[in-house]
Automatic annotation (TrEMBL), chain A:
Its main location: membrane. It holds the Pfam family BPD_transp_1. The chain crosses the membrane at residues 30-50, 124-144, 165-184. One of its GO terms (cellular component) is plasma membrane. InterPro entries: MetI-like, MetI-like_sf, PhnE/PtxC. It is found in: Cell membrane. It comes from Rhizobium subbaraonis. Keywords: Cell membrane, Membrane, Transmembrane, Transmembrane helix, Transport. NCBIfam families: PhnE. This is Phosphonate transport system permease protein. Signal peptide: none annotated. The lineage of its organism: Bacteria, Pseudomonadati, Pseudomonadota, Alphaproteobacteria, Hyphomicrobiales.
TrEMBL record, chain B:
It is found in: Cell membrane. PROSITE patterns: ABC_TM1. It comes from the Bacteria. Belongs to the binding-protein-dependent transport system permease family. This is Phosphonate transport system permease protein. The keyword Transport applies. The chain crosses the membrane at residues 32-54, 309-335, 356-380, 471-492. Residues 305-489 form the ABC transmembrane type-1 domain. The lineage of its organism: Bacteria, Pseudomonadati, Pseudomonadota, Alphaproteobacteria, Hyphomicrobiales. One of its GO terms (molecular function) is ABC-type phosphonate transporter activity.
Length: 320, 502
């Protein structure tokens, strides 16, 4: 595209402008190429470093990847559903690979919840409960962090820094710490995900509050309303649809987060998945993957539908 | 608030009847939502057995663990020996090194000559030169397996230095004085004398002060002095746990020749001291000692952190590179084929909905633990998410530019290059930057399931419950990295699309 030779028929000042433009363009091109080169070097270096520090080298392990995929194929398609519903398997050989009735959670003498459904429910409850906890605290803190409602910069800055730290603090450390204190169970996962959610939602919430229309607040202020009344009657009705939309968005993220936290010791379906992949139980693994996949799709669809009803299409960018 | 007159209110109500004729749902949805949330909270309280778990939690342990983040304990033990003498023993790997002589432990020593019986079986263990804090079991395993040498019982006359009196200064108002057979503790103006006779422990004053506890008469007395530490008086031994603020031996470990030297001493040694190790200069020795500090493992921690950063970076770049062309196929205004649109979109949905965890576990099995697995997991999940976002951005572009380019007879590639790309590129790059930043955070946790990086190291450090200071160190590093990358990504994004958009 770039014009490299000056056309002959420019006037003197026209040629000057043209030359100047070409100089600028050349400079810009130089910077672009420099940036791209730097980027390529960083990228290749990263790839080399990752391969070098990995336990198995990429090209050595690649054939095993396909072996592993091949190993994952169950003996028959029904086996997955037997694993999913804890039905007895005809292949039962005394190992845990094909023993399904063990994990049943009996509610009455004959009615049971299959283990994976129970664990999935646990994971879902972790996600929903910690999103609610995070929303409640985020709701309280966001008004203290918004520039238009909290003129005191010290309080505002403090609340914002606190949210940043809550957001950036590694969840795995929170989970591990509370695992050490509270012993095994889903509660460490709840605390870890909740704390992260407070930080993440608090930030999104205060940004919504800062963009709120202040005319209603002015009206209330003129009528002599105090701070809580102004927030409650002027700001909250405006921001509530966005808050609920972010709540739903966060719920989607937290369902994933709580499976991962589960895998590092927080209970729920994640732990089972890690164990079953580690022990090479194909049908069990596929059953869990299927269940997780369906749950995540269902949660995503439900939340997308609810958000579309609440705020229309505009709030559909992903945010974390 | 200003009160309205009743007639004025009625007047307003008459003028705007539609405001007061709302549906049941519109009027009560707020309380209903709150009620539902509260009920759900009660259910979760039962489901997770929150009350029972919180009640059974070991909260004093939590305090100790939290204190371990920023402080460390020195644990001398004062053992009662025969003949009214004592011995001060430090455990292996004491943060004070091999020759501890702290100024807060005042010992009166005496040289005595005595005849003692050498025990029949003397266990000899060779000191292990290197140990890693992450796997103490592995390091100690070989030492424990050492052969036990047996020797015939014999008496021996030894001349040795013994301790006859020891005084531990725990704090400004806290002192523990240990004499053979008697321990005197002063804390906060109170004084407790405890007699010990080799087996039983008898406090001389009853009831005990608040800071001392004894579960049964004759058993050990536990003294807790809050943040200053605690001590245990047993029949034949007084164990001291004195707590110090800070990270012990953060730069040089106890095996290093630079250990326990002040900064200026180290500097002068490096700058103009004689070579400690004739094979290399002091500065390279010092640097090597720092990198391979056995307690803090700086080099390993930094490598693992770099792995995490690399995982996020490469994963996001690869995802962007793959999502970019696929998004053009998925966008229905760019590729006018319903089948290919739907196929690509469903493919994105599939990648996104198979959780990052599943991909991570899957690739950990395939590639072995390491950054390759985490990288692949991030790559696949983000291809799905970025592809979806990119195709949505493409579907929302302004068609006029495309038409303009098309109307001058440009080929299809040129239409996309000059009609489409300028509109979406800033959004694309900004989304990629955003994911890069957020992946730096999620790469930590992905690592903990075995996908390499700092997450795995964090998880290993936490499992033993004794290395919380290392956890704190890694958390500080992670927070720094996250904040720096946040800053970089925010700066780049606001340069790209202006401050208003993110």
């Amino acid at each position: 595209m770039a014009v490299n030779t000056l056309p002959k028929d420019f006037s003197e000042s026209g040629a000057l402008i043209e030359r100047h433009w070409q100089e600028l363009a050349a400079k810009r091109r130089l910077y672009t190429w420099l940036g791209l080169g730097l980027f390529a070097v960083a990228f290749c270096g990263s790839l080399w470093f990752a391969n070098e520090t990995n336990a198995g080298k990429f090209f050595d392990r690649l054939p095993y990847l396909f072996d592993f995929v091949g190993d994952m194929i169950p003996r028959d398609a029904l086996e997955i559903f037997r694993a999913l519903f804890d039905l007895p398997s005809p292949y039962y050989d005394g190992s845990f690979k094909y023993n399904y009735p063990e994990g049943r959670h009996y509610i009455t003498d004959s009615f049971y919840v299959p283990e994976y459904f129970y664990k999935m429910l646990e994971t879902l409850n972790i996600a929903i409960f910690s999103t609610i906890v995070g929303t409640v605290f985020g709701f309280v803190f966001c008004f203290l962090a918004a520039r238009n409602l909290m003129p005191n910069w010290f309080v505002r800055g403090f609340v914002r820094r606190m949210m940043e730290i809550l957001r950036a603090f590694p969840e795995v450390v929170l989970a591990g710490f509370f695992l050490a204190v509270l012993s095994l169970g889903p509660l460490p996962a709840v605390i870890a995900v909740s704390i992260h959610t407070i930080g993440a939602l608090g930030k999104l919430f205060f940004e919504v509050v800062e963009n709120a229309d202040m005319k209603a607040e002015e009206g209330l202020r003129a009528a002599g309303a105090n701070w809580i009344e102004r927030v409650w009657f002027a700001i909250v009705p405006q921001v509530m649809p966005n808050f609920i939309s972010y709540f739903l968005l966060r719920l989607e993220i937290n369902v994933r987060a709580s499976t991962i936290i589960g895998a590092v010791g927080g209970g729920g379906i994640g732990e089972l998945l890690r164990l079953s992949i580690g022990q090479n139980h194909q049908a069990k693994t596929l059953a869990i993957v299927l269940l997780l996949f369906c749950t995540i799709v269902a949660v995503d669809q439900l939340s997308a539908w609810a958000r579309r009803r609440l705020v229309g299409d505009q709030a559909f960018q992903l945010a974390q | 608030m200003t009160k309205l007159h009743v007639s004025e209110m009625e007047d307003i109500a008459a003028r705007h009847p539609e405001i007061f004729r709302t549906t049941f749902w519109a009027r009560f949805r707020m309380p209903l939502i709150v009620l539902a949330a509260v009920l759900y909270g009660v259910y979760c309280w039962w489901f997770f057995a929150i009350g029972a778990v919180l009640g059974n939690a070991n909260w004093s342990l939590a305090g100790t663990y939290l204190a371990d983040w920023v402080s460390y304990e020195v644990r001398p033990e004062i053992r009662m020996d025969d003949h009214g003498t004592m011995k001060i023993v430090y455990p292996r790997f004491s943060p004070l090194g091999d020759n501890p002589n702290p100024d807060w432990l005042i010992a009166e020593r005496q040289t005595v000559t005595r005849t003692i019986e050498v025990p029949a079986a003397a266990r000899t263990t060779s000191p292990k030169p290197t140990t890693s804090f992450m796997a103490p079991g592995a390091a100690l395993g070989s030492a424990a397996a050492e052969a036990v040498t047996t020797a015939p019982p014999a008496t021996e006359t030894r001349t040795e230095e013994v301790v006859t009196r020891a005084e531990v200064v725990m704090g400004r108002s806290t002192r523990i004085e240990v004499l053979p057979g008697e321990v005197t503790v002063q804390h906060g103006g109170e004084r407790l004398r405890v007699a010990i006779d080799g087996r039983t422990v008898t406090p001389e004053t009853q009831p005990l002060p608040q800071w001392a506890t004894q579960k049964r008469p004759g058993e050990k007395v536990v003294l807790s002095f809050g943040i200053a530490g605690w001590a245990e008086i047993e029949g034949d031994e007084v164990s001291i746990r004195k707590r110090f603020l800070g990270w012990a031996n953060f730069v040089f470990d106890t095996r290093s020749p630079f250990f326990d030297k002040s900064a200026s001493e180290v500097f002068s040694l490096i700058a103009w001291g004689d070579r400690i190790d004739p094979a290399r200069s002091n500065i390279s020795l010092a640097w090597n000692n720092i990198l391979y500090n056995s307690e803090w493992q700086h080099l390993d921690v930094w490598t693992k952190l770099l792995q995490t950063i690399v995982m996020a970076f490469v994963g996001t770049v690869l995802a962007t590179l793959l999502a970019f062309p696929l998004a053009f196929v998925a966008a229905r205004n760019i590729t006018r084929s319903w089948i290919s649109n739907q196929l690509t979109k469903r493919f994105f949905d599939f990648l996104r909905s198979v959780d990052m965890l599943i991909w991570a576990l899957f690739f950990t099995r395939a590639f072995g633990p390491g950054p390759l697995a985490g990288m692949s997991a991030i790559f696949l999940t983000d291809t799905g998410t970025l592809g979806k976002l990119y195709s949505e951005a493409l579907e929302n572009i302004d068609d006029k530019q495309r038409e303009g380019v098309k109307s001058v007879g440009a080929p299809s590639v040129a239409v996309k290059r000059f009609g489409v790309l300028p509109q979406v590129l800033p959004v694309f790059v900004s989304q990629a930057l955003y994911f890069w930043e957020s992946n730096t955070r999620s790469a930590t946790i992905i690592g903990a399931v075995g996908a390499g990086g700092i997450g795995l190291k964090l998880w290993e450090a936490m499992r033993t419950n004794s290395d919380w200071e290392n956890v704190a160190y890694m958390v500080v590093l992670i927070l720094i990295v996250v904040f720096v990358f946040d800053g970089i990504s925010n700066a780049l994004r606001s340069r790209l699309i202006g401050r208003a958009h993110h």
